Amino acid sequence: MGRPEVLRERPALAGVWAAADRLFPVRVTRSWWARVDAADADDPLARQVLPAASELVAHAGDLDDPVGDRVRSPVPWVVHKHPDRVLLLLTKRCHVYCRYCFRRTLAPGEHEDPDPEAWRRAMAYATGCGAREAILSGGDPLAVRDAHLFDTIDTLRDGGIKVVRLHSRAPVTYPRRVTDALVAGLAARGPVWVVVHVNHPRELSPDVDAALARLVDAGLPVLNQSVLLAGVNDDVDVLVALSEALVERRVRPYYLHQTDAVTGNAAFRVDPHRGVALHRALRARVSGIAAPRYVVDPPDGSGKIDVEDWLARCTR
Ligand code: SF4
C-alpha cells in the first residue's frame, strides 16, 4: 500500500514518514490497512505499522543489538545461541515493517538477501553444527520464493536437521501468501512447525482466519508469539481476547515477549514488572492451552528466559 493512500487518512504523518523510512522502511499491506480503524488516532493496528516522531530521537536504554544476535552469529545470516537449535535469516525483507521490531537495526538496504556464497556458508554451518532443529527467520522467511524456501528445508533435512520451524508474520500481514502450493510444500516436508505473530485480536480478520485454517487443516502445528506493546496490547482484556481467539482458531499461544529495547522503539516498551502483573492476570483468566509464557531475550545473547526469572537474576 502506497504512502499517498495512507497519508490521505493520516496527513500528520507526512513530516516523519521520509526520515523514519530511511531508518526502517515503512510498508503496509492492503490487507493490514483494511483492518485499521481510520477514525481512531490511537488504533492499535495503525500504531504497529505507522512511523512516529519518537523513532527519530534517542531514548534511555536504546540498544542496537538488543538480544545479542551479533555476538552469537558465527557466520553471516546465522544466529546460534543453543547447541540443539540454529536460526537462519533467509532475508531482511518483510511484507510489513513493524515499528517495534527488535531487528529494525538490521534494516533492509543494499544487502537485503544473502548472496549465493554467503547462503552456501550459512547452510554449511547450519547442517554442520550439530543442531537438530532449524528456525527459519528474517525478515520474514515467507518473503522469499517457494522454490528457495523448499530447497532450504530439503537441504537442512539432508544435513540431519530433524525439525524445522518457520517464524513468519506473513499469514497475518499478507495472508494471500499462504497459497495451496505453499501449504502443500510445507506439509510434504514435515515436521514443519509454523510460528505466527499476532499481537491484537483485531488482526484476526477473515482472510487471516482462512490462511491459518489452511495451515492447520494441512496438519502443520501452528503456534503464536506476541510482543507486549504499549498502546497495543498492554491490557489484560486485550490479552485474554487474543489468547481465546487464537485457541478458537487452533493456534496455540506460545510466547508473550517483553519488548526488546532496540533503538527506535521506546514508545512501545512496557515496564517488565507491569508486564509480570499483566501476565499473571492473563493466566488467572484463561485455560492452560491459552496461556503463553512471558519471556525476554536478554542483550547478552544467552537466549530466552521467563521474565520473572530474569528480574530475579537482575536483582541478585
Ligand atoms: S514481520 Fe517480523 S521481522 Fe518483519 S518487521 Fe514485523 S516483527 Fe520484524
How would you describe this protein?
By secondary structure, the protein is an alpha/beta fold. It has one domain (60-315): TIM Barrel (Alpha-Beta Barrel). It contains twelve helices and nine strands. The protein has helices spanning 3-9, 14-23, 30-33, 44-49, 116-128, 146-158, 170-173, 180-187, 206-217, 236-248, 272-285, 307-315; strands spanning 78-82, 85-89, 133-137, 163-167, 192-197, 222-227, 252-257, 293-296, 305-306. The protein has a nine-stranded mixed sheet. Strand 3 (133-137), helix 6 and strand 4 (163-167) form a beta-alpha-beta unit. It is globular and about 50 Å long. The N and C termini lie far apart (49 Å). Bound molecules: iron/sulfur cluster. Iron/sulfur cluster (SF4) binds at residues 94, 96-98, 101, 103, 138-140, 169, 197.
Q: Find the CATH superfamily.
A: Aldolase class I
Q: Unreliable runs, pLDDT <50, ≥5 residues?
A: none
* Biggest sheet character: 9 strands, mixed
Helix/sheet category: alpha/beta
